[in-house]
Amino acid sequence: MKVLCSAVLGIEAVVVLLATSLATSDGSVANTTVAWIAGLLLILLLVLAIGTLRRPWGLTVGWILQALVLASAIVVGWTMLVVGGIFVILWWLAIHNGSRVDALRARAADGD
Description:
Elements: H1 2-25, H2 32-52, H3 58-71, H4 73-76, H5 78-111
Helix pairs in contact: 1-2, 1-5, 2-3, 3-5
């Protein structure tokens, strides 16, 4: 599960970087400095969240960050709502399928 969740958070950080760049260059935001600070802070949180996946509360941090990415649609626009929604689905799939893979691996290890 950690591998899939890490991949989702890492790719999401890249997408947030691209969205921040787009939002500041096309005039979507009034203050580009504030937008860059907020975008870079969100990117930093996404990258740091990868390290928290080892902890029991790591998934909760991931869910909070998914909400923050969705909330960025207030500033960036409806397209970020769509992108954030896609990442919410990917996050859920990573948790759901990652747990299944972990259970299968544990069962295979017990059978050896």
